[in-house]
């Protein structure tokens, strides 16, 4: 056990240094975009023609081609995702532009030809908007650059449907549309030659950092098209491909989901406090509906984390969407594209306080949409794509957070993290590498198994205590030693050396046995004798079960008092004697309400009591989470919340406590069986031997530059607009007229 603890401590130290150090660059945790890097690599140095301006980007392209020939990220099963098609074409064009690697070009085209049918066939019914625009743009760019692309006859139907969808997008959306973010202009590098753009529109929409909507690829195109030096001033946008605050929030959320909050509580405190301060100083002003949805994603995640952390944050921080019909309609119509966002909103409403009617409305709305998304087979999400997301949503809807035990939740997320989520960027997928950091996952596994070791030892000790006191051999009622310990251990994240687990578990066992004795076994005189013995704290004259129960109670109180005396130097024996529960029969609250309302029915009384319980639950949650209520130490308040979650788990939909079998599988997962976590072996994509063209790269690059010069930089004095072509203004032919 000591060696396990030392290993855990060593991993914690390593992770603090590598992940949570303030010296770390947040964007180093974001996987590079092969697509955008390729576009940076295409930019020519204006001072030295024939050389790339960003040599490092070209070097990255040359050294990051996968063995199978593609660039981009793989899916959960190791297969390339659809974003590898445009990314690979962009990288191949970059290599061809500088005549950098014939072998790399050949391997890239071989991958494209061998895998395009598979990827397009599998996804063509649910291709995301960004892919439709970018994929066709890169096909056109590759052909004009002189690369030999061929399309099998069986692909023509799929390609035709993609082309029609692009036409629909370009005809129905404005260049900068408030209902679409990123807007069409942010795909400047991939727009067809038939799409006319006023050069002034490009300059007008350059942001302060010189970018086109924080897109390196579009910004590279804008620079090559206009020569505007402002595009080079800052170059890499500060929010690309995601906000730095969101990266930190996802790190915190990830650490907490894996059950590691205890080890990194200081780091978590610092991150959340900094985020809270920054957001108050610099609120995010969204640009259009989709940007507002991105803000909702982050704000709902932040709301849950900050409220759980004790910050005084109001629901208005993300519930304002309820007052925007456009956003509500957009979510209703395309909810399958926003599952991760809606899921975040739903989770945020878990921590609702009394009187927060906005959160009530947000919960009903998000639940309705989550249930609707379960009928869809859409593979890709506008924010995060997770292979097992459907199962995660199913659990969230079927078993609310308040009825789930933390320890089992941690196990679920460890097992779900076999592959990290894919984040959807403007034109490709990304991974947050910190969400699948090898050391973090090792720590999560070791920490979970270490807790299991402690739990097994404590449960065996508890079973001995139950047997030694006679409580497990009463001959009547429910023997619930394992149930009681499981509920206490799995519901909270108490320190591994905490005595509280054993104290609460013994209390639960005593109460269960006493309750059964009063309900089903004891005669009236026996119950009276036991009650009086407890009141005078003297078991003289007790016999049978009454004597066993009282002796166990005295033993339990004595042990607690001794431990407190040892740790704190005070005697609390008398205090403990005064608070053991007296076994007096009380009527059920539902029956009391029904008795007071004889004209009603049992369903009305149940509904009445549920409403009371719901309000009291919200009040308790507020009392536990809000730091300004300091009448109890925080660990004590969280123990009360754990008790509430245990009762919700036992009685949420049925009486699981009285079942002899229903919790056995959960007990095995919590205490005995280690998590099932493994890295899936990648499945290799297909290969083919299709070659490349023999056109000289120097000719291609000259044509590339000449096209920019003649078509984009020189403006006729008789016209106020310049016809901008896709990406690098090279596309002389549209896909419709291309011969496949």
How would you sum up this structure, described in words?
The chain is mainly α and 740 residues long. It is built from 31 helices and three strands. It has a three-stranded antiparallel β-sheet. The radius of gyration is 32 Å and the shape is elongated. The model is unreliable at 581-585 and 679-740 (pLDDT under 50). Keywords: Magnesium, Metal-binding.
What does this entry show, briefly?
The chain has 740 residues and is mainly alpha-helical. 58% of the residues lie in helices and 1% in strands.
Helix-strand makeup class: mainly alpha
Structure summary, number of beta strands: 3
Largest pleated sheet: 3 strands, antiparallel
Q: Which shape, going by the Cα principal axes? A: elongated
Radius of gyration: 32 Å
Tell me the β content.
under 5%
Could you list the spans in which at least 5 consecutive residues all have pLDDT below 50? 581-585, 679-740
Can you give the helix content as a percent range?
55-70%
Question: What is the mean pLDDT?
Answer: 81
Q: Enumerate the strands of the largest sheet in spatial order, edge to edge or round the barrel.
A: 1-2-3
What's the total helix number? 31
Report how far the terminal alpha carbons are from each other: 66 Å
């Amino acid at each position: 056990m000591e060696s396990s603890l030392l290993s855990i401590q060593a991993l914690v130290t390593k992770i603090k240094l590598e992940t949570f150090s303030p010296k770390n660059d947040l964007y180093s945790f974001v996987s590079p975009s092969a697509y955008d890097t390729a576009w940076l690599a295409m930019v020519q140095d204006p001072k030295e023609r024939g050389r790339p301006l960003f040599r490092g980007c070209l070097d990255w392209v040359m050294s990051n081609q996968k063995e199978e020939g593609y660039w981009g990220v793989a899916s959960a099963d190791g297969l390339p995702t659809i974003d590898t098609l445009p990314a690979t074409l962009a990288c191949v064009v970059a290599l061809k532009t500088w005549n950098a690697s014939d072998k790399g070009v050949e391997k890239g085209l071989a991958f494209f030809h061998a895998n395009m049918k598979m990827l397009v066939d599998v996804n063509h019914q649910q291709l995301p908007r960004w892919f439709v625009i970018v994929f066709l743009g890169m096909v056109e760019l590759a052909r004009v650059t002189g690369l030999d692309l061929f399309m099998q006859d069986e692909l023509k139907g799929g390609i035709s449907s993609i082309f029609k969808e692009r036409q629909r997008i370009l005809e129905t959306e404005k260049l900068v549309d408030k209902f679409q973010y990123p807007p069409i202009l942010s795909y400047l590098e991939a727009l067809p030659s038939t799409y006319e753009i006023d050069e002034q529109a490009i300059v007008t929409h350059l942001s302060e950092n010189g970018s086109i909507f924080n897109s390196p690829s579009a910004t590279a195109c804008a620079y090559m098209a206009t020569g505007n030096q402002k595009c080079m001033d800052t170059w890499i946008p500060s929010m690309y491909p995601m906000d730095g605050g969101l990266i930190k929030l996802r790190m915190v959320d990830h650490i907490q989901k894996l059950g590691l909050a205890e080890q990194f509580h200081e780091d978590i405190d610092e991150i959340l406090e900094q985020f809270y301060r920054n957001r108050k100083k610099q609120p995010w002003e969204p640009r259009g509906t989709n940007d507002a949805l991105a803000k909702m994603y982050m704000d709902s995640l932040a709301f849950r984390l900050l409220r759980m952390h004790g910050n005084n944050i109001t629901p208005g921080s993300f519930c304002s969407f309820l007052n925007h019909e456009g956003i509500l309609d957009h979510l209703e119509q395309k909810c399958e594209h926003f599952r991760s966002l809606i899921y975040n909103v739903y989770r945020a409403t878990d921590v609702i306080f009394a009187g927060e009617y906005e959160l009530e409305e947000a919960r009903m709305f998000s639940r309705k949409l989550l249930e609707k998304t379960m009928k869809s087979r859409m593979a890709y999400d506008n924010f995060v794509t997770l292979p097992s997301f459907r199962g995660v949503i199913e659990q969230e809807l079927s078993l609310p957070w308040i009825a789930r035990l933390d320890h089992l939740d941690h196990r679920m997320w460890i097992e779900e993290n076999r592959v990290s989520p894919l984040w959807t960027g403007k034109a490709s997928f990304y991974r947050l590498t910190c969400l699948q950091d090898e050391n973090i996952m090792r720590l999560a596994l070791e920490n979970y198994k270490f807790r299991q070791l402690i739990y097994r030892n404590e449960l065996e000790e508890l079973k001995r205590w139950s047997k030694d006191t006679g409580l497990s051999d009463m001959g009547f009622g429910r023997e619930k030693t394992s149930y009681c310990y499981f509920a206490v251990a799995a519901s909270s994240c108490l320190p591994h050396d905490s005595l509280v687990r054993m104290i609460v578990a013994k209390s639960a066992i005593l109460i269960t046995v006493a309750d059964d004795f009063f309900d089903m076994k004891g005669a009236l005189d026996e119950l009276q004798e036991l009650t009086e013995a407890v009141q005078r704290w003297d078991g003289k004259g007790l016999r049978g079960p009454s004597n066993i129960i009282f002796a166990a109670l005295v033993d339990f109180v004595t042990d607690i008092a001794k431990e407190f005396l040892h740790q704190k130097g005070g005697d609390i024996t008398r205090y403990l004697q005064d608070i053991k529960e007296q076994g007096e029969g009380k009527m059920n609250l539902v029956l009391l309400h029904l008795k007071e309302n004889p004209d009603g029915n049992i369903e009305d009384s149940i509904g009445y009591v549920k409403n009371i319980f719901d309000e009291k639950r919200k009040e308790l949650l507020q009392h536990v989470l809000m730091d300004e209520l300091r009448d109890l130490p925080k660990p004590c308040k969280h123990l009360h919340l754990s008790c509430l979650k245990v009762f919700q788990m036992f009685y949420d939909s049925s009486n699981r406590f009285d079942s002899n079998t229903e919790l056995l599988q959960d007990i095995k997962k919590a205490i005995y069986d280690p998590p099932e976590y493994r890295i899936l072996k990648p499945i290799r994509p297909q290969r083919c031997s299709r070659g490349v063209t023999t056109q000289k790269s120097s000719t291609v690059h000259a044509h590339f530059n000449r096209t920019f010069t003649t078509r984009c930089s020189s403006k006729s004095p008789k016209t106020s607009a310049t016809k901008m072509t896709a990406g690098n203004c090279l596309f002389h032919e549209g896909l419709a007229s291309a011969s496949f």
